[in-house]
Amino acid sequence: MHQKRRRQIAKLKGEPHFKPKDCWCLFYKLARINAAGIRTFLNMKRRRVPTSYLPDDQKENPSKEAIAQATEEWEADLRKMLYSFEEIASCKRHSPRAQWFEEECIKLEEQGIEPWQLSENGKWLLAVPNAPDEIMEQESKYNLEIIKGLITFAYHFDSLWE
Asked: Which residues pair with residue 118 across a beta bridge?
């Protein structure tokens, strides 16, 4: 009875409903929601830019040039946020490591070797070797760009309004 009442209250408050299956990988679900929202926000006509993007001497009465520059920086940060959430929502398919892994699996399959093999004790073994250091360095840079977008999102979270 309490759970039904909680759902009714949440519906009245306009809260989104999440099923347990949505929450097994909540970061993926939230990344999809955030990506869609930021994409719409980025493409809509906005009448303001956060004052944090304006020079200190331009905060009270900004010039057109200062507003244009601030808008450009704000939109670059919005694109950075969007990139991060889109990459997370795509399960990082574009990561250097994922691309390398896919190529290695294709090479093995062309040789007639299954990338995943079932061992005698019933455990799955991967026939693909570990990624080389160069790929792992690229992967670290890729992950850093995603983290930068998430930090930018957190920093400007309360500026995402019109």
From this structure: 124
Instruction: Tell me which residue range forms the domain holding 93.
Output: 28-52+66-159
* Interatomic CA distance for residues 24 and 27, integer angstroms: 9
Q: pTM, whole model, 2 decimals?
A: 0.80
The residue type found at 136 is: M
Q: Which residues of 13-25 are buried (b: 16+ CB within 10 A; e: fewer)?
A: eeeeeeeeeeeee
For residue 122, give both structure tokens. Answer: 């019933």
Is the model's pLDDT at 103 over the cut of 90?
yes
Q: Is residue 6 part of a domain?
A: no
**How many domains does the chain contain in total?**
1
Which residues, at least 6 apart from 11, have a Cβ–Cβ distance to it below 8 Å?
Answer: 17
Give the integer Cα–Cα distance in Å for 11 and 15: 6
Please check whether residue 85 lies inside any domain of the structure.
Answer: yes
Burial category of 121 from C-beta neighbours within 10 Å (exposed 0-12, middle 13-18, buried 19 and up)? exposed
Q: pLDDT confidence of 92, banded at 50, 70, 90?
A: confident
Instruction: Give the separation between CA 82 and CA 38, rounded to whole angstroms.
Output: 6
